[in-house]
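Hi V.,

You were right to ask for the full record rather than a summary. Here it is.
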Amino acid sequence: MAATIFDIAKACGTSKTTVSKVLTGNDERISDAKRIMIHEAMERLNYRPNSVARALCTKRSNAIGFVTSRVSHMVSRPYYAALLDAVLDEATVAGQRLTMYNTHGANSAEMDPLTFSDGHCGGLIVLGVPDAATRIAIKMSNLPCIVVNGGHPEEATVSIQVDNKQAGYDATKYLVDLGHTRIAYVHMNGIALSNERLEGYRLAMRDAGLPVPDDLVFAVDYDPTAAYSTAGAIANSPGLGITALFCVTDEYALSAIQGFRDAGRRVPDEFSVIGIDGVIEGERCFPRLTTLSQSLHELGKEAVKRLLASFESTATEPLHVVWPTKLIERGSTSAQRPI
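Predicted structure:
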């Protein structure tokens, strides 16, 4: 049977309250000798504190909640996996455990508003746009909350957000500067970040004096494999005159490169391709992918650091952090060749 706080108190000839104060760090008035004796007894009796009970006493857990609405295969998706890996690394260094929450499909009738209020985590990192039920649960929990690339919800203590419009502008302008004039955009239907990147794309084209007819914007479902068939359709439609493809994310761009290759077309000799994110797979494909990198590992680490800092913060207004992107030029883009 596992040792309890009562066993430690009995072994030290002291009260449960004194042991509890040592456990929670509220031991300023306890002598060093007694504190050492209690710690020695815990080690000798192999005492392991109950994390939930300790959270109730200290109002803080040594675990971070990682919240996503991905329905399945999250760890196989490069963007999500990179952020999760970074969050786990940084949390481990900080002595924090990670509790995973998948809120896909949750609504007010299905999701318990007290989901995050059970003492199993001391703060939340939310990846993406939280739905209405998740936002209610965050608000009810009263926990510090960092939202990553999910806009600026009022429940967030800190939001860290790429300027998607600027990223779309920068990716498009890069292709324009290479001499491309018929630049297509692969757009995710109904996704806020894609709408913002589309705005940036249109603005960069307009600033370059280039038209954006409907046949240059390919709206696809929320499925990166859709970019594969889009690339195939472009490859088999020479009348479109498209020479470059800007994809909403790296996953879509990688899928498009494969689509061009399977259609017997060459990247970048016939089609330049650029994405946004900076996933590791972009370094491993052929040709290697040109991208606007979010430095995903650093982004995940920053989210943990901001969350831990918020535990001690007295700020009452949410902090909005604009996360930078950096152009990484690789082999999937080149100057426009004569058609």
